Amino acid sequence: MRIRVADVLDLFAAGLSANEVLAELPDLEFEDLSACFQYAARRVEHPILRAA
Fold first, then answer.
1. pLDDT > 70: what percent of the chain?
2. Residue 47: Cβ within 10 Å count
């Protein structure tokens, strides 16, 4: 089963704890939650360019 990172993050944004997210999505393991945060952090990280 494929679960989107956005779906996992939406559950956290709704106030669910890690244990509650795992109960909602029983195909996931705790390590998957960490991987979601790592993926999201890499996606929003971007270089800041400054004009000289």
1. 100
2. 5
